[in-house]
């Protein structure tokens, strides 16, 4: 088991940068335009049906999309695919 190929490292670096940019941009948009972000995410939730859940509360989970926990979770999941 040698070192991973350079292409694999490049792919992992790209995923890291992509997720970091998404989290940072999402955090900035959430601060500047909280109502618009809420509407967009709720509209996406209507397509999947999660907003039909009676126990659904957007205040509990919308901020998690732009947290460091989300960042590390996505990297961990994508890391298993690489």
From TrEMBL:
The chain crosses the membrane at residues 12-33. Pfam families: T4_deiodinase. GO terms for molecular function: thyroxine 5'-deiodinase activity. InterPro entries: Iodothyronine_deiodinase. Keywords: Membrane, Transmembrane, Transmembrane helix. The keyword Transmembrane helix applies. It comes from the Eukaryota. This is DIO1 isoform 7. The lineage of its organism: Eukaryota, Metazoa, Chordata, Craniata, Vertebrata.
């Amino acid at each position: 088991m040698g070192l991973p190929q350079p292409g694999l490292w490049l792919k992992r670096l790209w995923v890291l940068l992509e997720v970091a940019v998404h989290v940072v941009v999402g955090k900035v948009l959430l601060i500047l335009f909280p109502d618009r972000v809420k509407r967009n995410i709720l509209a996406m939730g209507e397509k999947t049906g999660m907003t039909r859940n009676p126990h659904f509360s957007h205040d509990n989970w919308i901020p998690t999309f732009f947290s460091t926990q989300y960042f590390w979770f996505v990297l961990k999941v994508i890391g298993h695919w690489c």
